[in-house]
Amino acid sequence: MSVTRQMIEAQAPPPLQARPWSTARVSGLAAMALWLVVGVGIILFLVAEWDPEKIDRYAPRYFSGLWVTLTLVGISIVLGALVSIPVTAGRMSSSRWASVPAYCYVYFFRGTPLIAQLFLIYYGLGEFRPQLQAIGLWGFFRDPWNCAILAFTLNTAAYQAEILRGALQSVPKGQFEGAQALGLTRLQTYRKIILPQAMIVALRPYGNEIILMVKGSAIVAIITVFDLFGETRRAYSRTFDFQTYIWAAIFYLIIVEALRNLWNLLEDRLTRHLKR
Amino acid sequence: MEQTLTLLSFGPDGWGDQIASGVLVTVSLALATLPLGLVVGFLLALAKQSDEKALKMAAEIYTTIFRGLPELLTLFLVYFGLQIGIREAVAALGFESQIEINSFLAGMIALGVVFSAFASEVFLSAFRAIPAGQYEGGYALGLGKVQTMIKIILPQLIRIALPGLGNLWMILLKETALVSVIGLPDILRQAGIAARVSKEAFLFFGTACLLFLVLAILSSIVIRYIERSVERSEVRV
Amino acid sequence: MRISKYLTLAASAVALTLAVGAAQADSHLKSIKIGTEGAYPPFNNLTSDGKLEGFDIDIANALCEQMNVQCEFVVNDWDGMIPSLIAGKFDAVIASMSITEERKEKVDFSDKYYNSPPAIAVPKDSDITEATDAGLDGKVLGAQSSTTHSNYAEEKLSSADIRLYPTPDEYKLDIANGRVDAVIDDVIVLSEWLKSDDGACCKLLGTLTPDLVINGPGAGIAIRKGEDDLREMFNEAIIAIRDNGKYKEINDSYFEFDVYGE
């Protein structure tokens, strides 16, 4: 039987090997260098072209455009959420009379470009002025802002209906049965059992949908509603200064990143009971 | 009714041929963008799962920017900015640039860049779904890194990523309509010209929407066919 | 090893492009690309079979003939005309573009080749009586965006609710639909439209006094800054066709008066 008499002395750690100059490392550093050049270039460009007179003149227009973008998206998202409820109910209904029209609605608005829908509603329905006047709806369609809200609402409602349906279907059947066994009514079941669970599933897609709407709304100037991008194009067409587009890009990136982070916070908070 | 048919007919009185050429432009733009977006998206995904911090970060910056900007803005940045940029860069070297970024090319680059930013996320999550054992198995067989990627990982990756890529294709098809704003004679622009000249806005914009729907339906049939053919390998007997 | 191969490849591609660019620069003045809009009758518009016609086009052809260069037309949206010129998509713009100080900061202009004032058109049953800021107070005024007319509206007719459209065709649709109460544009363009079937809805309300700062001295040919040779060529050609009767011939086939102005 052998007895250990002596412990091995503590050894120095092996020397750190210099990281090899692999393809990945070289291209990574090159790419970062490129971004750095682009970033610094843009900042230098903005500093060089800084013109207090232009800022004075165009900054208020940018902010009014920003306000138009935010209100347009905000109102459309909320109205779209309301419209999406009956559409979802139709999609999930077992009656063909409800499910087929709902399916067609969703397919149409998800299968065609938003910009085409906007044209169709603004110029297409403008053609039916006498008929619309006869039923008293022309006052609504006369205003481009209303047409934009209508087009965006119908569009986002189709997407939101699919999000809602997916979320509701993700809730296991046992949850319905459990609620039934407890004697809850249908409304109570949805309100207290199903929706809270479904909403957690739907949270991320809803966030993505809002971001998509913010980006998608940039086309609205083609029907004379001047949002952030419309004001940008207007400023560019008078100054021919490329920084107008750079500022728009900065604004949009700030909005989208703010929304994304806000949504991450929201998700963290709402799912804290699921974390161990 | 008869008048409607005349307006949609081919030939000098109708707008059928112009709109048909618009369909061709829309489809070719989408098809030309797809490979560009797929390849760049795949490379981005590789970069994002690399151990190299710089590479990862560069790819993340790319995705953040091009997912956050409105597609229309990206399009304008490419259409006007890129050409001015190239012009100035070449002028700085003492030459005169004749490189022209036309609306088709601008559309292809802008939509390709946006597509790749989203596709990289799809590829990345597909990569994560492939167990490390697959790579190890490849190396154990003596395959090199590239060979393992092409022969073992990629076939599985495509199958997993296909539904996500199918969605992106549908989005791409719709986004081509934005290129009409910078003058590309696609479906929407041709329909718009027809609508303005004939004053039949509802007819022509409605036709444009229906054509996009038809393209979407055809695409979903093709995508389903591809999905089924790659899934054959998964069927257990 | 791999990387260096690709780098060589990329470098040679760049070198090739540069060589092509340098080679083409020499033949620069023998052919000129001219940008125009093709949506502004009677000055420039597209016929139903896709050909360009109009006063601007005829003048451009006459100028090119005079200068003995080959001209090729490029149709471009109005909004992007100057950016596209700067970006090099074409070498000159002949599209009824007014010579203004704002534009002169980014591009150069030839001398004017015609001059015509802005005017306002309204539906026939309109209750607007005068073409002034007070007369248009609270009314919806349509204009084509990025034009001197839209600038005029924003500066001088700011009591009106101004809506900006990408092309004249769209404000024409909307005034016929009743979404717009009045439109502002060049008096010749409006008159031409009012004579046609589409313009049956509306009438000319009045001509406006042009503002020299906003409207400039007239329409000129825009070229990139610093291309003085090209500008001089155009200037000489304009004088030449004024003198040799070619201008008058074109003018008379469109108008009953001399559109050149003072």
CATH architecture of the largest domain in chain C: 3-Layer(aba) Sandwich
> Uncertain runs of chain C with pLDDT below 50, 5 residues or more?
1-28
> What is the count of DSSP helices of chain A, taking H or I runs of 4+ residues?
11
What structural class should be given to the helix and strand makeup of chain C?
A: alpha/beta
Run of helices and strands of chain A? HHHHHHHHHHH
Radius of gyration of chain A: 28 Å
Tell me the overall shape of chain A. flat
Tell me the total number of β-strands of chain C: 13
**Helix and strand run of chain C:** HEEEEHEHEHEEEHEHEHEHEHH
CATH class wording of the largest domain in chain C:
Alpha Beta
Question: How does this model look, in words?
Answer:
- The complex is a heterotrimer of chains A (276), B (237) and C (262).
- Chain A has helices at residues 23-48, 52-92, 96-111, 114-126, 129-134, 138-141, 144-170, 173-181, 186-216, 228-239, 243-270.
- Chain A is an all-alpha fold and 276 residues long.
- The two termini of chain A are 49 Å apart.
- Chain B is mainly alpha-helical.
- Chain B has one domain (2-234): MetI-like (MetI-like fold, Orthogonal Bundle), CATH 1.10.3720.
- The model of chain B has no long low-confidence stretch (mean pLDDT 90).
- In chain C, a hairpin with a 3-residue loop joins strand 2 and strand 3 (44-46).
- In chain C, 45% of the residues are buried.
- The termini of chain C are far apart.
- Chain C is of the alpha/beta class.
- In chain C, 40% of the residues lie in helices and 24% in strands.
- At the A-B interface, helix 1, helix 3, helix 4, helix 9 and helix 10 of A face helix 3, helix 4, helix 7, helix 8 and helix 9 of B.
